[in-house]
Amino acid sequence: MNWDDLRIALAVAQAGSYARAAQRLRLDETTVARRIKRLERALGYALFDAVDAKRRPTPRGQEMLAQAAIMARCAQAVESVEADGLAITGRVRLSATPTIAEQVLAPALDALLTTHPGLILTLESANANADFARWETDFAIRLGRPQRGNFTMRKLGEAGFCLIRPQRAPRPGDYLCAYPPELAQTPEMQALQGMSELPPARLQTADLNVIDRALGGGRASAILPQAFARKWETDPNMTVEALAIRREAWLLAQPHLRDEPRGRVVSQWIVESFHQSDFLTSDNIVEKSEN
């Protein structure tokens, strides 16, 4: 059995298709399919079923992939230790919203990558939650307490929010910025439902930078984190009202990283990045494991 075949099988499980796994591994899709077939012949059972245009692990495939994931983590741990036993090396994947990636993490990247030249950080900037069960990420930062899962949880603090709108009386053509319908249950959108005096929601986006730019036109109203609201407090044409709503920021991590040097380094860097930014209105570091 070839270890590289196991690595490809893990990539298919994470990506959900041969094509996406091939993109990640920089291989041809036919090569991925051929290597999976070779591994299935060696094992004597199918690893994946085609379900709803995705490759889903079979029950026996799930058992094998769980063991392969342990092997992968061990290999990564070996690679992360250099001869002197001190240097931090290897790849770490971190998932965060575009706003947190840009406002909190990006300004602190130099400090991490300069201090640890052997470390490779893959920063995935997306609003969708990465799937820990499918090993799509090593770390993730989420706004809102996560549901139970096979990860460790660390509360970073709370983000406050403000209502920002034009100082003048409402005019025809004014509009409200809101999240898309799939985010209607967030505290921000719940708060907007009770504000009947606001104009209709005619811009829907989850990109806070877009909302912030829209406010500059003088026609829009929106709820934004206090980190965005501060610059509008000095604008005489806008009014900023602090709201009572809060969203908790949580750091999630694959459990094995708790015992790995690079996991501890990246975790501490994330905590320090939030401390150095003004994104959170309060810091409240609490660590616990959820399974």
From TrEMBL:
InterPro entries: LTTR (IPR050176), LysR_HTH_N (IPR000847), LysR_subst-bd (IPR005119), WH-like_DNA-bd_sf (IPR036388), WH_DNA-bd_sf (IPR036390). Keywords: DNA-binding, Transcription, Transcription regulation. Residues 1-58 form the HTH lysR-type domain. GO terms for molecular function: DNA binding; DNA-binding transcription factor activity. It comes from the Bacteria. Belongs to the LysR transcriptional regulatory family. PANTHER family: TRANSCRIPTIONAL REGULATOR, TRANSCRIPTIONAL REGULATORY PROTEIN. This is Putative LysR family transcriptional regulator. It comes from Magnetofaba australis IT-1. The lineage of its organism: Bacteria, Pseudomonadati, Pseudomonadota, Magnetococcia, Magnetococcales.
